[in-house]
Description:
By secondary structure, this protein is of the alpha/beta class. It has helices at residues 3-7, 21-34, 74-84, 87-102, 117-120, 125-136, 156-169, 185-188, 200-204, 212-226, 238-246; strands at 40-49, 54-66, 70-72, 110-114, 143-148, 172-178, 195-198, 229-232, 251-252, 261-262. It contains eleven helices and ten strands. It has an eight-stranded mixed barrel with strand order 1-2-4-5-6-7-8-9.
Amino acid sequence: TARASGLGSWAIYHPEMAETDRYRKWIETELGQAIGKNEFELVYQPQVDTTNGETVGYEALLRWEHREKGAIPPAEFITVAEKCGLINQIGSWVLRQACVDARYFTSGEKIAVNVSPKQMEQDDFVDTLAAILRAQAVDPARIEIEITENVLIHDQRKIREQFEQIRALGCSIAIDDFGTGYSNLNYLSDLPFSKLKLDQSFVSRIEDRKNGGALVSTIVNLARALDVDVLAEGVETENQMVMLNAAGCTLMQGYYFGKPVALQRQQTLAA
Ligand code: C2E
Ligand code: MG
Ligand code: MG
Ligand code: MG
């Protein structure tokens, strides 16, 4: 029960719990055991080229099924993991599992893996990535590292160095949630990434906002100028797809094409 697991009197989940120190402490403690207790799983969501309907990649998304409390969304535990340092251990698990899973996508689709800025800041991040790729014998070209736009406010010299080394390994890099954070376009244009992921807030407002389409075309043009791809996130309706196409965006991901689903895998990593 919730009481037995240290949640005290919170037998029922309340959104405001996410805000409390106590809940954060609880998450921190439980997160430390989640890998060993086999509570993590990756689910995969298709990324579609709408010009031909082909699935060109899958984004790996982390799911935590707590043995008593049930599903806890990444929005609640990733920030905690970043604050307490567990993100490195969790992030390595994610990378390793995604590499194990890559072989089950038999058409050679790219696997996009979310990496926290905190994780990428670690001096040994690239070495860890390289070691995992080697151990799992995965072609680095199949792995795309997704990193949020917010990474750009971190140590810029360090981030550029990491980007270059990731690229040198043969992996590609996508800037996630683009358009929601602080971006120094000057600096962005010098970084070796190959995709902008247009944040879903642009997609959800493309129909009702007068300049919604124009905003998207502006970002599409920016991507062209930078010579990178642009993929729209959170596409839920056919009309959104049509409007995105009209704005020049052809790569998409969202419930309209498919929800994130678990693999029927034969192998899940132990601790
Ligand atoms: P994100 O990387 O931007 O992932 C997209 C989020 O949008 C996912 O939420 C996905 O399930 C959701 N989504 C996909 N299609 C639709 C749609 O059509 N409509 C709506 N409303 N939502 C859609 P999720 O899985 O809850 O993940 C939330 C965030 O948590 C991710 O945002 C990412 O920042 C972070 N995250 C997830 N897995 C990992 C991970 O393995 N490592 C790290 N560091 N962060 C992760
Ligand atoms: Mg992502
Ligand atoms: Mg995103
Ligand atoms: Mg996001």
